[in-house]
Amino acid sequence: MKSGYEFSPLPGAARGSRIDRRARPQTGASGRDRAGLEVGGRRRSAGAGRWIVTAARVRAVVLAAVVATAWASGPAAADGSTPELVAGGLVLPANAGVAVKSEDLHISEKAIDIAYEFLNAGDKDVTTLVAFPLPVLSPADSEIFEARDGGDPVDFLGFTVDVDGRRIKPQAEQRASVLGLDVTDRLVADGVALNPYVGARAREALAKLPAAKQGFYAERGLAVWLEGAPTGLAWTVSTTFHWMQTFPAGKAVRIVHHYRPIVGRDLLTEATLDRLAGGRAGVCLDKTGEAALRKALVAGRKAGGGSTALMQRRVGFALGAGAGWGGPIGNFRLTIDKPRADTLVATCFAGAPPKIGPTSLVWEAKDFTPKDDLSILFVDLGEK
């Protein structure tokens, strides 16, 4: 009996032009951040043995229904599209002397959960910095958060971490800059929230500033005042959670962390399908998947008598950030959970073909060295 899915090896796909600001440790000219994290010098390669999974049956959804779903399911621009913001996993100094014995990565549209088992094979305890950088926010990201009800301007992903089964509270460092110049201290002194894109705290504080202080912000392009109200808030925000972790000699330490991804949404039309099929949108799509989607769009147009589209969602993961660790990952497991059995999932991953379940895809690899970041496409193929 056929499973209803097919997978086939694909050639490497070029990185697309789609907006996806990835979480990276902030670096200087030396390729290290202020804490000494090695983040530079990674090569991005297409790799071999990429695989894609596509559903065999496709049903189209008329444009009106898709747009209604887009507004109901989350924040979106007027055309129903928002970019994804990409985070990754934990970052350790490359010279920490701690190996990753295993990594179990679970990705869905609602949550990203990662379980690591670190091993210090040396004869002395190692205490080192562990960090989790959030996506860097810029003015272009304001639309993502406008439709959200409040939110934490520091922990806007809902990050949690447990070490050997115990919840810990890491420190958070947040910095603000404009044109590469740090303005954190000035914002703090004026009582302005460093993240102006989540919640209204920054705007409310700026509205209370006397005219003498407004000039500092206007002259540097941080904000402008129209009829007495601050608008056009425009600085960059970087946020990193971090803590000092001790890895006992000869013992394994299990670290589990969780956060909510910021999902990108866009309408999939025949024009955007051309970009997907051409490998210009950061995700692999084989001929079988392309043909199925084109057939669905044509069928929907005939049934609806007008323009049709499917709603595509994107989840990104900065898998390449793990390339800075001291050696390959002993046992790596990637699980992608689908919201529905008829949801199409497409992604590029260098490894053996996945194990396919009704609502999940699972890849496994040994002595795995992450290279390319993940861009995962979700498209529901049937009407609810």
Describe this structure in words.
The chain is of the alpha+beta class and 384 residues long. It has one domain: Immunoglobulin-like (Sandwich), CATH 2.60.40. 17% of the residues lie in helices and 33% in strands. The chain has helices at residues 63-73, 142-146, 184-189, 201-207, 211-219, 270-277, 287-304; strands at 5-10, 50-55, 87-88, 99-107, 112-119, 126-133, 160-163, 166-168, 171-178, 181-182, 224-226, 229-231, 236-247, 252-259, 264-268, 310-318, 329-337, 343-346, 355-356, 360-368, 374-380. The strands form five sheets. An eight-stranded mixed sheet has the order 8-7-14-5-4-17-20-19, with no helix packed on it. A hairpin with a 4-residue loop joins strand 4 (99-107) and strand 5. Residues 78-377 form the DUF4424 domain.
* Second-tier CATH architecture: Sandwich
Q: How many helices does DSSP assign?
A: 7
- State the distance separating the first and last CA atoms: 25 Å
Number of strands: 21
Overall geometry: flat
| Top CATH class | Mainly Beta
In percent terms, what proportion of residues is strand?
25-35%
Largest sheet: 8 strands, mixed
Rg, Cα atoms, Å: 22 Å
Please indicate the count of domains.
1
Give the helix/strand class. Answer: alpha+beta
Unreliable segments of 5+ consecutive residues = 1-22, 24-79
Name the helicity range: 10-25%
